[in-house]
Amino acid sequence: MCPQTLDRCDQQKIIVPSEMGLLSLLPNAITAKFTQYSTGLLTSLHLLWRWIRTGGAALRIKERQRPKMLDKYTHMHTLLPSGIDMHYVEAGNRSAPLMVMVHGFPEFWYSWRFQIDHFKDRYRVVAIDQRGYGDTTKPAAIGDYRTSTLAKDLDDLIHALGADSAVVVAHDWGAWVAWTHAILYPKSVNRLIICNLPHPYVLHAMISENERQRKASWYMFFYQNPWLPEAIIAADDFKMFDACFWSKAIGLRNRDNFTEEDMEAWKYTFSQKDALNGPINFYRAAFQYPDTKAVTAKCTVKTLIVWGDNDGALLKEGAEESLKWCDDAQLRYVPGASHWVQQDEPIVVNKYIDEFLGSAKP
Description:
This protein is an alpha/beta fold. 40% of the residues lie in helices and 13% in strands. Strands 1-2-4-3-5-6-7-8 form an eight-stranded mixed sheet, with helices on both faces. α4 (173-184) links the parallel β5 and β6. The longest helix has 26 residues, at 29-54.
């Protein structure tokens, strides 16, 4: 069925069972709840220990100065019909074809810095902060982060910018939104480029059926706890970001592409008021609102899937299986690259996108 609020939704291509959702696809809810509460308990004990050990300093968020590199770009805002004031960075000629870049978690518009600079001579490049992130409006309610709502934001933005359609480039959670958007609003997407995130149904199925993927996705269940995820991410001056982007397990292989200055940009952005609640609510809404358009339909938009094959969070099989859920798609692996593929190997990623779009520089 097709919700009434999605006025450009193609009703013939969507199947949205009312019971669909990450939690319902697990072998049983007990496993999910056990993971949620056990990791929550361990996190509570860790935070208590850090609070005692540091006299409370570990849980205080440091005040930071805005890094100068963030102001090298043109910052814009547009008010969407939903009331969301969406912040984005813009580069290139406004008369050029529109390319919209959608970040993942825990990221923001700046994660596309290498792509913004590369494509701005041929496209009107717009790199957004999704709702709940950065300088975009941050609703408090979990229900405001349903996947269908996030996809509607993307569609509203494209039309608010005066375009009928756009090339959409997306990574991680942004790719989840972009997959859904392309299925719900195929006429709004010229081409779809997905970085390291399977088709939504494939990810659902892998968490349900693949033991390795389920174990790798433990954090999704932990994020269902109130306030604890936000607290542990911010603890010890956002030490979790160091692990995300610099660790051997899941960090970038090309450390030079994520400098100390880049890390400061991340910590500055996520140290602002309410900067973590919205991003975690993406995960909470995916579990708590099973009618969030977990679409069991093929993507009809021509699609490129770019996949760093050393992803520590998502299994490679998800990329291959996603091809079956597309009418016209190709898969390009980036050997040795991490989950953060567009930052880890930007030259390779940009080359693949150029070739896919037929816009390679002579």
